[in-house]
Amino acid sequence: MEAIVAGPVRRERLTAEIMERTGIDEAMIERLVRGFYAKVRADVVLGPIFDIRIKDWEPHLAQMCAFWSSVALMTGRYHGTPMAKHLPLPVDAGHFDCWLELFEQTAREICPPEAEAHFVERARRIASSLELGIAGTHGVMLGNGERFRRNQTGAV
Ligand code: HEM
To answer: Up-side HSE of residue 56: CA atoms within 13 Å toward CB?
Structure first.
C-alpha cells in the first residue's frame, strides 16, 4: 500500500522531481534573476520605473530569488504580495511585453531548454494575471486575450 504523503514531505518530493526533470536549482535561479535585472535596469522603458522605487537592489534581488524558488521549484521560500505591489505602478500591456521579452531573452541565454520553458510558462501566466489585476483597478474588465492599454495621451 502506498503511504499518504502530505505537507513538507510532499513538497520536498515535488521540488526534487522538478529539479531532476528541468535541471533548475537555486544557483540557476540566482543567475537568471541577476541577469534579468541587469537588463531591466539598463532598459529605457523599464529601468526608470524600478530606479525610482528600488534604492537598495540586494534585498530586492534576494526577494526575487525567493519568489522564483517558490514559483519554479515549489519551495515555499517567498512570502509576499506581488499583486499589491504592482497595482499602483504606471504600466500597461507595452511594459509587460517589454518585461517578458527581457525575461525570455535571459532565460534563453542562461537555462537549458526544459528549464527555460518552465520559467517562461510561469512568467507569462503571472504577467498576464498582474495585467488583469492592474486593468481591474482602472475599471477595465479584460476578456480572454484582451490587453490593458492606457489612453493614447500616455497619461498614467
Ligand atoms: C510591467 C512589468 C513589471 C514592472 C514595471 C515591475 C516592477 C516592479 C517594482 C517597481 C517592484 C518593487 C515594488 C516595491 O517594492 O514597492 C516589483 C516587485 C516585484 N515584482 Fe515586478 N514588475 C513587473 C512585472 C513583474 C512580473 C511579470 C513578475 C512575476 C513574474 C513580477 C514579480 C515581482 C515580485 C515577486 C516582486 C516583489 C514583491 C514583494 O516585495 O514581495 N513583476 N516589480
So the answer is: 4
User: Is the CB of 102 within 6 Å of ligand 1?
Assistant: no
- pTM, whole model, 2 decimals? 0.94
* 84: containing domain: 25-137
In short, whether 71's Cβ falls inside 6 Å of ligand 1 is no
Ligand 1 pocket check for 57: Cβ under 6 Å: no
The residue count for the chain: 156
Whether residue 154 is contained in a domain is answered as no
> Is 96 near ligand 1, meaning CB less than 6 Å away?
yes
pLDDT of 8: 85
The per-residue pLDDT for range 46-66, each reduced to its tens digit, is: 999 999 999 999 999 999 999
Write out 69-110 in H/E/C secondary structure.
HHHHHCCCCCCCCHHHHHCCCCCCHHHHHHHHHHHHHHHHHH
- How far does residue 6's CA lie from ligand 1's centre (Å)? 31
* CATH number assigned to the domain comprising residue 40: 1.10.490.10
Q: Is pLDDT above 90 for 137?
A: yes
Q: Which atom of ligand 1 is nearest to the CA of 53?
A: 10
